[in-house]
């Protein structure tokens, strides 16, 4: 008892470890999940396009939130898939429901991100071609 209480308010070594663990999770997902690679690539293209089109910073912030949200949801979906696989290695209707609903959450947020991206970028693309 007490060892936790004696911990520093902010420990840089613990922060560094947390960053390394989180990076490992991102690198794992990057290597093994095609959807994550697709979303990351689309997100990077949108970010570059926003710079080229000189989109205002507050709109870029909205794009950053939705792109980051999709990527974060992909990581959670991957974690859920692994928890299910850890619990059961045979076909199970409940496993299917868990995985399918988690995938559905990613899909809904991705579709939302696409709509937000179109709403923000399209007027600038139209203005570029109607000069
Ligand atoms: N144990 C299981 N029991 C029943 N259905 C399963 C099971 N494991 C996977 N499935 C079905 O297969 C689908 C794909 O699951 P899998 O674990 O292969 O994910 P994935 O191919 O990596 O998916 P994603 O491409 O979304 O990352 C699930 O959405 C589910 O419908």
From TrEMBL:
Keywords assigned: ATP-binding, Cell membrane, Kinase, Lipid biosynthesis, Lipid metabolism, Membrane, Nucleotide-binding, Phospholipid biosynthesis, Phospholipid metabolism, Transferase, Transmembrane, Transmembrane helix
Keyword Transmembrane: yes
InterPro entries given in the database record: DAGK, DAGK_sf, UDPK
Organism superkingdom: Bacteria
Topological category with respect to the lipid bilayer: Multi-pass membrane protein
Chain ranges passing through the membrane: 36-55, 61-80, 101-126
Subcellular location: Cell membrane
A GO MF term: kinase activity
A UniProt-annotated Pfam family: DAGK_prokar
Family according to the record: Belongs to the bacterial diacylglycerol kinase family.
Protein known as: Diacylglycerol kinase family protein
Organism the protein comes from: Evansella alkalicola
